[in-house]
């Protein structure tokens, strides 16, 4: 899962492709972006000064993401909206996937897009945040995934971006109140980032990423952890993804289990809350681990986690 923005030059990935969460640890601490105070602060210009090249039109009675788009293939046409202008040398955007939150992309110039990547530096501005503060003011940078980097160099999500600034917009929106802009620049590492001839230059952007579903699978594949942790399908998300409920406790007879208190833990209530997945990951690994403290907790309590 990722709280994500997405851009590519031709089309989205076919349905059988998925991002690999490569488990690797940096040899050195990640370097924070150091604010110089001279970063650009472009003001939002909007449709009066550019062309809308992507817009997610809600097709249901509710105003939230409810269905992922089927990826185009050689045998089936693209579901990309046909009423948008087809300008030359324009990036194509897509956000109809789990936690995708890009509503609109406006091309201001050939190298600058407002969001409501090659040896060219692109600047992206997401112009309608509501939070008055952000970790981007403390050195956090967006992450980028490159298929070619993963294939050739086994590099997964990497921190990218320069000239990063998070600031309050001057204009006041009567419906949303004060809004804020995140703006950053980057240069894509490759001109052609996908070996498939049907696609070119495939990248993924995210603010934060997590691989909770892979972690759940790893727990069930571990013989010792699986003994104390059972997983059942609770429901499906609006996008059709499985939502599980986990029961963690020491095996015992039913009479003993009835005497144990139940502790309920919940995280990632909203799909974009990726940081909580990392907290829950640590909790799950601890509660299913082999430490004496974890064993004592499992003997006393039943943990229900979702």
UniProtKB/TrEMBL annotation:
The lineage of its organism: Eukaryota, Metazoa, Ecdysozoa, Arthropoda, Crustacea. One of its GO terms (biological process) is proteolysis. It comes from the Eukaryota. GO terms for molecular function: metallocarboxypeptidase activity; zinc ion binding. Gene3D superfamilies: 2.60.40.3120, Zn peptidases. It comes from Tigriopus californicus (Marine copepod). Belongs to the peptidase M14 family. Residues 204-306 form the Peptidase M14 domain. Its cofactor is Zn(2+). This is Peptidase M14 domain-containing protein.
């Amino acid at each position: 899962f990722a709280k994500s923005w997405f851009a590519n030059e031709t089309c989205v990935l076919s349905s059988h492709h998925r991002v690999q969460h490569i488990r690797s640890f940096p040899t050195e601490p990640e370097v924070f972006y150091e604010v110089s105070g001279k970063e650009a602060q472009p003001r939002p210009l909007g449709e009066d000064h550019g062309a809308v090249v992507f817009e997610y039109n809600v097709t249901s009675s509710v105003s939230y993401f409810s269905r992922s788009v089927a990826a185009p293939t050689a045998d089936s046409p693209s579901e990309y909206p046909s009423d948008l202008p087809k300008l030359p040398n324009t990036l194509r955007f897509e956000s109809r996937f789990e936690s995708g939150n890009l509503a609109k992309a406006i091309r201001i110039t050939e190298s600058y897009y407002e969001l409501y990547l090659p040896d060219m530096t692109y600047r992206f501005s997401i112009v309608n945040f509501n939070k008055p503060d952000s970790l981007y003011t403390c050195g956090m940078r967006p992450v980028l995934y490159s298929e070619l980097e993963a294939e050739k160099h086994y590099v997964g999500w990497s921190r990218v971006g320069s000239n990063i600034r998070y600031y309050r917009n001057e204009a006041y929106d009567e419906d949303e109140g004060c809004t804020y802009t995140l703006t950053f620049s980057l240069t894509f590492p490759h001109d052609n980032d996908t070996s498939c001839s049907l696609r070119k230059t495939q990248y993924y952007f995210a603010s934060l990423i997590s691989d909770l579903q892979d972690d759940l699978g790893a727990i069930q594949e571990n013989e010792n952890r699986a003994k104390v942790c059972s997983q059942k399908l609770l429901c499906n998300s609006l996008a059709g993804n499985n939502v599980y409920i986990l029961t963690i406790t020491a095996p015992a007879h039913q009479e003993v289990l009835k005497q144990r208190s139940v502790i309920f833990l919940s995280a990632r209530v909203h799909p974009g809350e990726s940081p909580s997945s990392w907290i829950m990951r640590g909790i799950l690994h601890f509660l299913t681990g082999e430490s004496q403290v974890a064993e004592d907790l499992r003997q006393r309590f039943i943990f229900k986690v979702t």
